[in-house]
Amino acid sequence: MTRAATYLDHNASAPLRPEAREAMLGALSLTGNPSSIHVHGRALRNAVETGRQQVARLAGAEPRQVVFTSSATEAITQALVAGAKAFSADAVAVSTGEHSAVLKAAEATGLPVWTIGLDAEGRIDLDQLAGVLARAEDEKATLLVAVHWVNNETGVIQPIERVNAIVGPTRHTLFVDAVQAFGKLPLDFAASAPDMMAISGHKIGAPAGIGALLAKAHADTARLIPGGGQEQGRRGGTEPVALIAAFGAAAEVSAYDAEAMVALTGRIEAGLKSMAPGVVIFGQGATRIGNVTNFAVPGLSNATALMALDLMGLSVSSGSACSSGKVGVSHVLAGMGVPKALAEGALRVSFGWNSTTADADAFLAGFETILSRQKQAGKAA
Ligand code: PLP
């Protein structure tokens, strides 16, 4: 019997939660279109609105602030590309640690993109943020500021309260990519400063293909797909009821066990330090979310390690894989000033709702084998 591969890549996508599967199957057995007023349509509408309430609750949002989209990438694009136009922005300001979904959307606005750097631990440089706002005052420019809350590669938690305090009282629009914070940190969208936030279903145990833009009433004029008027005109297209039901069910049962996550990553990091004293753990000096560790052992390339780990049935990531499946050098690590040679060894292990100590130990055993092979190869050379 072949051993099932060990999944250590929750930040890429979490395994489907049984509750989400059940809700999805239930909704798939319904017939019709949620916009129809007959009995079939009403049953589907009910499933959509239940999903909206469940997602809103976990996000600390009013249900009417939740606009379902096909992904966080679409929500981000709506916020930035359509938002820049709707709010008459003159420039978009982003941190260099943003997910490519944000960086590409900023580019796609066609506006000047002003960047805010990271410090060596991966935190957004708040002095640079203040500098960007001062420049906007000088130039009388209106900004759309887009920052992330938790970094998908390093797990670094950004000083979002400080960002809110700096940008919130200004006339500029604030968008927060909360994809890696949703379900892990308490979100209070309705009462906090951001005008818009993006969240994603498949990071919390719903299937891929469903996300949401959270938008305050004054900021929900951004329209990417006007279409047939669904989502109160904010996102056209017949609602994918089964995916929305799954998103809602996953949100309903999502209970992030920070202590368990920190125990697993702590186990990995302690194991790595004892077998490879030169290991560098990225963002270690910052406050991190706890379910992810990103590290490199000098001299060990991540392409080699990822392949060897995969052959051993250990699914991890470089943290910066692009959709083509190639391993790239991380722009996040580059933004933190990590030398390219070291960044080329970056590996990301991320845990989630069904991870166990046995998963962490399987990774450590596999990684020890890789290190001893590397040592042997070094001796032979
Ligand atoms: N933003 C962050 C921080 C992410 O980690 C991801 C997914 O990796 C996205 C945006 C994009 O989310 P989606 O896959 O729902 O488009």
What does this structure look like?
The model has no long low-confidence stretch (mean pLDDT 95). The strands form three sheets. This protein has a seven-stranded mixed sheet, with helices on both faces. A three-stranded antiparallel sheet has the order 9-10-12. The longest helix has 24 residues, at 357-380. It is built from twelve helices and twelve strands. By secondary structure, the chain is an alpha/beta fold. The protein binds pyridoxal-5'-phosphate. Pyridoxal-5'-phosphate (PLP) is lined by residues 71-73, 99, 101, 148, 152, 177, 179-180, 200, 211.
What topology does this entry show?
Blueprint: E1 6-7, H1 18-28, H2 39-59, E2 66-69, H3 72-86, E3 91-95, H4 100-108, E4 113-116, H5 126-139, E5 143-148, H6 160-167, E6 173-177, E7 196-200, E8 211-215, H7 241-253, H8 258-275, E9 280-281, E10 292-296, H9 302-311, E11 314-315, H10 331-335, H11 340-343, E12 347-350, H12 357-380
Parallel strand pairs: 1-11, 3-4, 3-5, 5-6, 6-7
Antiparallel strand pairs: 2-8, 7-8, 9-10, 10-12
The structure holds pyridoxal-5'-phosphate (PLP).
